[in-house]
Structure formats: C-alpha cells, structure tokens
Amino acid sequence: MKKHILVIPGDGIGPEVTTWGKAALEQIADAFGHEFSFDEALMGHASIEVNGNPLPDETLEKAKNSDAILFGAVGHAKYDNDPSLKVRPEQGLLKIRKELGLYANLRPILLFDELLNASSIKPSILKGTDILFFRELTGDVYFGEKTRSEDRNTASDLMIYHKYEVERIAHKAYQAAMQRSKRLCSVDKANVLESSRLWRETVQEIAKLYPEVETEHMFIDNAAMQLIKDPKRFDVVLTANLFGDILTDEASQIAGSMGMLASASVGDGTGFFEPIHGSAHDITGKNLANPLASILSAALMLEIGFGLKEEAKVIIDAVDQVLKEGFRTNDIADGSTNPYKVLGTQEMGKLVLKFISQKVITQNS
Ligand code: IPM
Ligand code: MN
C-alpha cells in the first residue's frame, strides 16, 4: 500500500512523542512492504514563532494533500497565563479540524491489564472496561459565536448544533456500536439546554434506524459520575464537543494515564491521528513523556485510516508486551514497578520498535 503521511509535531512534548509514532509507522511499512512517504509541517506555538500564524496555509495545503496526519500536541504556558493574547496555538488545531471536516473524534479507552494498578480507581471496578467515545468535533461552544462587551465585563460563547451535525456523528457511532456489543449511550444535558434537546431528539430518530442497538440517554453530570463508579456499563458513548472533551480526560484515568490514549479524528477527508494528551510543558525536553499514546495513534491510523488491521495489531501487541515485561514510563509507574524498568521517552520508544520487529519476524516464520 502506498500512502503519504503528514507529521505535525506541534509544541511541548509533541515532537518528542511523535518521533516514535512516526518510527513505528516506518517500521511497519518496512516489515509489511508498504510504501509510506512522510512530510512535516508547523502548527501551534511552533508556527506562531516562525510566521505569526498557528496554522499557515502551507500546513493546511499539505494536510489536504496527504492520506493521513500524525499530530503531536499544541499549547504553551505563556498563553495559559495570559488570556488576553489574541493569537493562540489552539486556534491552529481548531481550524484544521474545521477545514478538514473532522467532525468525529474517536477516543478508545484501551485498558491494558498490566496497568490496572496504575489507575486511581480500584482494579475490580476497572477490569473488563472497553469504551469507545465518539466526541463531536466541529460544532458546539468551540465554534459558536463568541462575544465580549465593550467594557469587557461580559462574555459569551454560543452553544450551537445543527441537526445534520448530530445526524452524521450519530450514524458513525451507531455503525461502530453494530460492530461492537450493540450498546450506545448518548450523553447530553437535555434537562437544561435547548441544543441538547435537539441532540437527544435527533439521536432518538437515528436510533430507530439501528433497532438492534440498545440506546441509553444520560445527562452529562450523571455520566461523569457513572464513568468512575461503574465504567463497564459503557460501550459506545456518543457526545458533543465540550462534554466529550471533559469526559475523555476523565476516562483517561481508567487507562491509567493520559499518556496512554490515542485518538482518531475522521470525517469528510483526510484522517487526523493524535494522542489525547496536551503539550505538557512541565516535562518538555526532559525525556519523561510517554510515547505510547503517539505509537498507539499510529496504530489507529493503520486501522481506521488505512484499514490495515493486522499491522495495527502488531503495534498494539508490542505495547502490550512492553507492559507485560514490566517496563513503564514515569506516568504509568506505581509503587510495585521495578525502578530499573522505569524508562525515558526514547528508551520506551526503542523498546516498542524492537518488539514490533520481533513480532513481525515470528509472524512470518
Ligand atoms: C483536545 C484538546 C483540545 C480540545 C485543545 C488543545 C483545543 O484538549 O484535543 O482534547 O479542547 O479539543
Ligand atoms: Mn481535551
């Protein structure tokens, strides 16, 4: 298979971790005889520094002309502490999502058994959890009109949804539910918000087209609680942009760490694959970041972007083996971890690559 992949490392730990996601793709291409070509582009603070723009046209052009995008993270402490700055790294990410029509953000909560103890939730509650979030990604307060009064003392963000936006992501979530355990929970705040009432009505309509799927509707506040109380009750979770942003950070604790979770944003064209974690300025450049979310994002690219299931599985199995053998990055180490097996970003990346190549050799022999 021939594919052209754009790598956008971005800011903070983005470049450190994306190196390993890309290396995993190169190794898979080698092993399975695929031809993957790569290009690189700027986004976020890294791009603002060079040309004052978090998403230059050149990056957008390259993105549109690629078959998939591997992204790192955007953000910088300087902006977090100064809300008055008008040009912000995150604008680049939001714009590329909109421009590429990436309306569905898939966030699988992939729980490796070896990490049951890394979570702050009891292993008995966690074991067997397998959730796939569908977060709407190009609507909601993220893209609604923003206002600020002249005296600067009043501000608003419009929470807005159009029916077609709910329909298209609902279809994607139901199609996934059909392939899984045929359970779907749609999360909203329909007891208060009109946009959520539209959301619920629309999901109820789409549900009729998938009669085999058992649909549940839940309010966001209750969902946030149930997710910690009994995560196993969820399978496919369908929700809006802001609710999904918050719920999936919460759900990352089920997997042990934000450093473990990958995501796929898909829609009209080129798919976009990225860790759910951010730029993590506090650990940038210290060889402390967990590269597994980027490596698992590469696996999602192979599976969802290119339909290469076997190749994706090799990567997931290699990550599983690393964990089974007791190796950890700092974020997923716990009291029982052998201190000699706590690895830096680079050492962890190299080890996964080694296991990928071993798995391919065993498969082919
Ligand atoms: C995410 C991030 C982004 C979001 C930020 C960086 C704009 O938190 O991908 O979850 O809020 O969508
Ligand atoms: Mn987020």
From TrEMBL:
It is an enzyme of class 1 (oxidoreductase). Binds 1 Mg(2+) or Mn(2+) ion per subunit. Signal peptide: none annotated. GO terms for biological process: L-leucine biosynthetic process. One of its GO terms (cellular component) is cytosol. Its EC number is 1.1.1.85. GO terms for molecular function: 3-isopropylmalate dehydrogenase activity; magnesium ion binding; NAD binding. The record marks 142, 189 as: Important for catalysis. Keywords: Amino-acid biosynthesis, Branched-chain amino acid biosynthesis, Cytoplasm, Leucine biosynthesis, Magnesium, Manganese, Metal-binding, NAD, Oxidoreductase. NCBIfam families: leuB. Catalyzes the oxidation of 3-carboxy-2-hydroxy-4-methylpentanoate (3-isopropylmalate) to 3-carboxy-4-methyl-2-oxopentanoate. The product decarboxylates to 4-methyl-2 oxopentanoate. Homodimer. HAMAP family: LeuB_type1. This is 3-isopropylmalate dehydrogenase. The gene is leuB.
